[in-house]
Design goal:
Shape: elongated
Number of helices: 9
Distance between the termini: 31 Å
Number of strands: 11
Structural class: alpha+beta
Bound molecules: zinc ion
Largest sheet: 5 strands, antiparallel
Strand content: 15-25%
Mean pLDDT: 88
Length: 251
């Protein structure tokens, strides 16, 4: 991908790109404008066509055409890339090295999370007490189904055993935070992260499951000695980037 980026930069001058967003004024060998990233009356935003960069003396904003488009449009690099590529008439060629492996590695993680979501859904289906608790809390059957709400049995290794039977390896399960390592010298090496919890799958914008939020079931929560957190969430992982996820956005 980096070669595409270089090609785009070669073909698109920074002045050309920025002038579709700003009114640029010539200032010697550079250009200046009123900064789009902070409020100002006199121009302190400078663009250098030679270097292909911009710098604002007012707020310190700086970068190249990519950072500019990202920040101006409020989008991520991955979205700015096709936008600028189209402008430049450059085809985006994904880097060959490792990308296929990386993709299949991620695919594996997504499958694991999807399998777990179905597993939790099925578990909930046979838990009448949990279902009636949800109903009492005002969740209709349709809501439960649409949001794929599930249940993680109060058991140390139910999910782990299920996924192992499906051929998953502990390394992947750890990578998405579904299990944890047992730090004690004796006993089983791993245990389920979510136990005795109502499970809310968290999906990315494309609807793929990337993590879970598990809410403790009141009956599994010791009231006198409240050591268990009300909610346990998946950790930040390779597929779960919390800052980029808005719960329910895919819906
Ligand atoms: Zn500024």
């Amino acid at each position: 991908m980096s070669s595409s980026v270089e090609k785009i930069k070669e073909r698109l001058g920074i002045v050309e790109v920025l002038s579709s967003y700003l009114k640029l004024e010539k200032a010697g060998s550079n250009y200046k404008a009123k900064c789009p990233f902070h409020n100002e009356k006199t121009a302190s935003f400078f663009v250098s066509p030679d270097r292909g960069t911009y710098y604002c003396f007012g707020c310190g904003a700086k970068g190249d055409i990519f950072t500019f488009v990202e920040e101006f449009e409020g989008i991520e690099f991955i979205q700015a890339l096709p936008l600028l590529a189209m402008k430049a008439g450059v085809e985006i060629v994904p880097e060959k090295r490792d990308s296929k492996n990386e993709r299949s590695e991620k695919e594996k993680l997504f499958n694991l999370l999807e399998e777990s979501a179905s597993f939790f859904e099925k578990e909930l289906g046979v838990k009448n007490d949990v279902l009636s608790y949800l109903e009492k809390r005002g969740l209709t059957k349709t809501t439960v189904k649409d949001w794929r709400i599930g249940y993680a049995e109060n058991d140390w290794r139910l999910l782990y055993n299920h996924l192992t039977k499906k051929g998953a390896d502990p390394r992947s399960m750890l990578a998405v935070g579904l299990i944890k390592k047992n730090d004690k010298a004796s006993g089983e090496p791993f245990y389920d992260t979510f136990r005795g919890r109502i499970m809310f799958p968290i999906a990315d914008n494309g609807g793929r499951i990337v993590g879970f939020s598990g809410r403790i079931l009141p009956e599994n929560s010791p009231t006198d000695n409240d050591t268990q957190a009300k909610y346990v969430n998946s950790p930040e992982t390779e597929v779960f980037h919390k800052s980029r996820i808005l719960y329910g956005f895919d819906k």
